Amino acid sequence: MSFRKKVDAQQAHILSLRLALGFMTIVCLALAYGWWNAPKDLTVHVPPDLRSGSTRKWWDVPPEAVYSFALYIFQQMNRWPSDGEVDYQANIDRLDAYLTPGCKTYLQKDFELRRNAGELRKRERGVFEIPGRGVDDKNEQHTIVQSINDWTVNLDIAADEHYGGERVKRALSRYPLHIVRADLDPERNPFGLQWDCYTSNPVRIEVDNDISGPGGQQ
To answer: How many angstroms separate the CA atoms of 151 and 195, rounded?
Structure first.
């Protein structure tokens, strides 16, 4: 009888070991799956001035990086080197990864409205930051943190449009761009940010002194 009890105890022990082995196998497979799907590259935003070093949380995006992203995308979208009717649409398609779906729809409608109104054909356009009204201006807050995932960037921009080699328009405006975090496609969008169009309508502004464009034109 005691021999039978020993056999039953050994079988129960073997069963418990098998269950433990099966559980550990499942845990190892789950860990392997998580390791396999972990990002191979991690973008860390570093402020441009490194003279005093920097310590930041890896997920924190400094205002300077958000501002530079907003200015870069806005300039690229509004650069029409030869024909706005062709270049504007090409920019919307080319910068697709840097736009939220809602913003892309808004820009597409804006393109169609301007095209139908005859405001794009053979128009050349470029925008630049108004000198003295950029991120280094200590008197104004150009990047407003709404949360850890979205920001409002106030760009003070001069927009020049040319037709047939002659400048036909110069507009000085403040554009309140809405920028959101979007780590969706690091291959196409390494910034991890997207432009979500505007938080409010752009407003005209005035400056005290004359400004020149990047090419030196008044």
So the answer is: 10
pLDDT in the model for residue 31: 85
Q: What is the pTM of this model?
A: 0.69
Handedness of CA 115, 119, 123, 129 (dihedral sign): negative
> What does the alpha-carbon distance between residue 113 and residue 180 come to, in Å, rounded to a whole number?
26
Would you kindly state where each structural domain of the chain is located, as residue ranges?
63-204
DSSP secondary structure letters along 40-59: S-------S--TT-----TT
Reading the block at residue 194, the tokens are 């997207």
Confidence band, pLDDT 50/70/90 cuts, at residue 218: very low
Tokens 């709404």, residue located: 146
Q: Write the DSSP symbol of residue 130.
A: P
Integer Cα distance of 210 and 218 in angstroms = 7
In this predicted model, what pLDDT tens digit does every residue of 104-162 receive, in sequence order?
Answer: 999 999 999 999 999 999 999 999 998 877 765 554 578 899 998 999 999 999 999 99
Find residue 194's DSSP bridge partners.
180
Structurally, what CATH architecture does the domain formed by 63-204 represent? Roll (3.10)
Cα-based torsion angle of the residue sequence 195, 198, 204, 205 in order, rounded to the nearest 10 degrees: -60
Structure tokens at 157: 């921009």
Name the helix (H) or strand (E) containing 181: strand 166-181
